[in-house]
Amino acid sequence: MIELFDSRDPRRYIFEHYKKIQSNIPSKLALNYSDESFNLDEQEVLTYFKKNETRDPTIFSTIYRRDWWPIGSYRILNRTWQYPRVTVVQKSINDGLYEMVSEQISWCKKQPNFRIAIITRNKNKRLFYKMISDLKKINLDFFVGEKIWVCEGDASNCYQHVLYYGDKNVLKEWNKPCR
User: Fold this and answer.
1) What is the pTM (predicted TM-score) of this model?
2) Residue 58's Cα: distance from chain center in Å?
3) CA distance 79 to 69
């Protein structure tokens, strides 16, 4: 079951609890989950997946957008993590992740200005092709696009690979941010 809610919802505290755990796991990505790098009040929607009503959430992510992105652009699966953290290589992608994508796309499509939803990754886009194939099975057509700027840092962090759903022409409107 996927739960989507805004940052004023009481479920925020559950999300914050697991975000804190994620930010304290020794990893090169831990900084991405710090309060300085990941402000929940800036997210459009907080999302988590629960296998059933009695279990704790196991997958977390948000829907995000920046003011300087083209109007109607939303980043789904922003700051995605799994709890407990998986430390062995898995040959499949958790079905809860696909349910999350589907629900996040449904939310995006309800927005009056929706044009495109993106999933971005900094260095590794290997899973994109598996995701495209799997998402097609649930009638979601995603495509690989050209790299885009998702933040205002240097290219090694902010110029990222993109998987998109929606109007490809929006990617042509994407500009490098002014600093």
Assistant:
1) 0.93
2) 15
3) 18
Q: Which residues fall within 8 angstroms of residue 20, CB to CB, at 6 or more apart?
A: none
The pLDDT-based confidence of 89 (bands split at 50, 70, 90) is low
What distances in angstroms separate CA 127 from CA 82, 84, 144, 176, one per listed residue? 16, 20, 11, 25
Higher model confidence: residue 87 or residue 82?
82
The rounded Cα 55 to chain-centroid distance in angstroms is: 22
pLDDT at site 177:
85
Residue 120 CB contacts under 8 Å (≥ 6 apart), including other chains = 75, 148, 150, 160, 161, 162, 163
Query: Tokens at residue 9, please?
Result: 């919802």
Give Cα 5 distance to the centre of its chain.
14
Q: Which two tokens stand for residue 79?
A: 């700051």
All structural domains of the chain, each given as residue ranges with its CATH number in brackets, are 2-172 (3.40.630.30)
At 149, which helix (H) or strand (E)?
strand 143-149
- Residue 146 parent element (H or E): strand 143-149
Task: Provide the total of helices (H) and of strands (E) in the chain, helices listed first.
Answer: 5, 7
DSSP for 59-108, written as a single string? EEEEEE--TTSPTTEEEEEEEEEESSPP-S--SS--HHHHHHHHHHHHHH
Amino acid at 105: I
Look at 53 and 143; give whichever has higher pLDDT. 143
